[in-house]
UniProtKB/TrEMBL annotation:
Keyword Membrane appears in the UniProt entry: yes
Protein name (database record): Periplasmic folding chaperone
Keywords: Membrane, Transmembrane, Transmembrane helix
Membrane-crossing segments per the record: 30-49
Amino acid sequence: MSDKTEKVTPEVLDEHGDELIHVPTGQSRLRYIATIGLVLFLLIIFVVADLFQSSLTGGGGGSDEIFLTWQDPADGEKHEVKESEFFETARFLSNMAAFGIYTPYSLIFGEQTQKRSSRPEPTEQDVASFLIYEEMAKDAGIAVSDQEHIDFLRSRFGSNEGLEAAARQARTTRLAISEDARRIERVAKLNGLMFSTLGIPDPDAVVKTWQEGRPEFKFQSISVNRDDFLATAEAEVPDDEALATWFHERPDFEQRKLYTEEKVVPRVAYVVPGDDFDPAKLFEAYPAPEGVDLDQQAQSYFSQFRTTRFKAPEKAKPEGDEEVAEPDEIPEKPFYDFEEVEEEVRAEAPIHAALTAFVTDMQDRSAEGATVDLAAEAEALGLTVVEGGEPMTREEMTAADTWGSAQIASQLAFSSANAIVPRVTATPDALVVAQVASKIERAEPPFEDIRDQVATLWAEQRAAELAVESLDYLRQTLAAKPDDVENADWTPEIAWIDLQKAAGEAGYATYDRPWLERSAMPEGQTFQTATPVNRYMMMTPTVYDMEPGTVGPAAKGSDGKTAFLIRFDSQREKDVSEIDANTVFQLRGQAANEQLREFGAQVLLGDGAWLAERAAIRFPKNEAREAEKKAKEANPTAG
C-alpha cells in the first residue's frame, strides 16, 4: 500500500469557504452547474424505480402513507391500506405464486400474459382485489378446516418432504408456508362459493351458438361451356402477325409448352452382368478397398437395387374359361428375397462398386480440367459402349434397349454438356455409366410450325371470353345496369325463376346447389373432384358477402372451360337435428368456461366492473403522482 495517502483535515474541507458549488478553475460556471443538474435529473429518473415493482423482489418497504382505499361492497364501510401493508401483501402473493399456490386474477381473467421462464407477478389491482376478498371472507366467517388444508398442501407438495424441500429452497419454514397458504385457501374458498352461484349454461343458448357458428348457404348457378362458342371464336382468329404478337405476350410457361423438346446425344457404357462379362480388367483398374466387408456390400447393393434388378416374374392371368384362383391362393411377391438371388447379388455388387469408383475417378479428373473420353476408357475396361447416335428425347432414352430407363433419361437431361452422370444407374438389364456428348436445349420453333397450335389457343381463350360475355348479357336482359356502375361491381337482384327461364331459352345449364356450410362440398365431391362451379365457390369467399337474391358478374372457372353466373339465394341456421350429444356436451363445457371467465373478469379483477362500482377502489398516492406528471407535461417550464 502506498504511504503517500493524504489525510483529509478540517482545513481542507473548509478550503472553499461558503461556496455551495465549487467550479473547477477554467470551467464555465453556468455550463458546469447545468451539467450537474442534468446528472441529478437522470439519477432521479433511473434510480428511483417503481416502488411497487421493487417491492415484489424485496426492495422498497413502503411508508405509513395511505396507498389503497376501498369500501365494503356489502355495508359500505370505508377501508384504508397503508403503503407498507400493501407492499407486504404484494410480496406475500409473489412468493405464493412461486410455490404454485397462487395465480393472479389478471392472469386468469384479464389481459396479463405470463412471460416464459418467469413466475406470474401480481399487479396492483390483483393485490387490491385479494385484500378486499380476504376481508370479506373474514367477515363472512369462512374458514379452512385442517383436513381441507392438509389436502391442499398435499395436492401442491405431495408430502412433508416435498413441503420441506420447498421451504429450504425459499429459505423459509414449513410453518410459514402453511400459514400463508391458509390465507390463499380462505380467499379461494370464498371465490369458489361465488362461482357456485352461476347456473348451468342455457341449452337453447348452447344450441344457438352452435348454429351461429355453422350457417348454411343456398346458391344457384347458370353455366355454359366455352366449346359452345368455339366455332365463333375460330372465325375471329387474327392474321399471323397479330397472332404471333398475342402469343409472345402470353406468360412464359404457356409459350414454353410449344417449344421444341430438349434432346441429348448420350454417350453410354454399360455392363450386362452374367457369364458373358469378364470383370477382370475393371477390377484391375479399380480394385476393391482393402478390408471391404463383402456381406455388407452385398446387402447394401440388394437394398438399393432390389426393385430394379430383382423383380419377380408376374403370374400369368387366366384366359378364356380357365378357373380363376382365389386371391389368397396367389402369393403377392413383386420382388425376390435376398436368399433367392444371393449368388447374383454377390456377383454384381463388386462390379457396381468398381463402376462407382470409375465414375468418381472420371469426375475428379474432369474437375481438374482433364479431358475425359468415356467411350475409350470404358471400352478398355470391357464395357459395351453406345455413342454417335441421333439426339434423343427423354421418352426415347427411357425406351432405349438394355441401357434405357426413366432414371438415366432424367439424369442425362439435367446434366450439362460433357458432364459425367454422377452415379451408376441400374436398369432391369444392365449397370449403366453415362455422359452427355452434346445437348440441344428447348427453343421456340419457327412460327409457321406452331401457327395452328397458337390459333387453337387463341380461339379457346376467345371462346371462354364469349361465354362470359354471353352470361353477362343475359344478366342485363333481366335487370337494368346503371351507367355509372362497373359491370364487375354490379350485383342486381334477379328471381331464380326468371334466371331459370332465361337460361332454358338460351340452352344454358342450371344448378340448384343444396344447403351447405361455407367450407362444405356437395355429397360425393371433394375439392379435387368438384365441379368447376363448386370449386369456384370454395375459392371465392366474396360470393358469401352478396345480398340474398342477387347475381354476381359472370366468372370463368379454374378449368378455363366453364363460365357461370352465381346467384346467392339465402342463408339459414343449421338444423338442430344434426347436432349430436357429444357436440352438445363439448359446447356446454365451452359455454360454462366462458361464463366463468366473464364472471371472474367482472367480479374478481380489481379494475373489473363490480369492484370498481361496489368497492370504489382508489390508489391516492398513484393518483397524486399521475396528477403531478400531467401538470408537468402541461407546463414543462414550471418549477
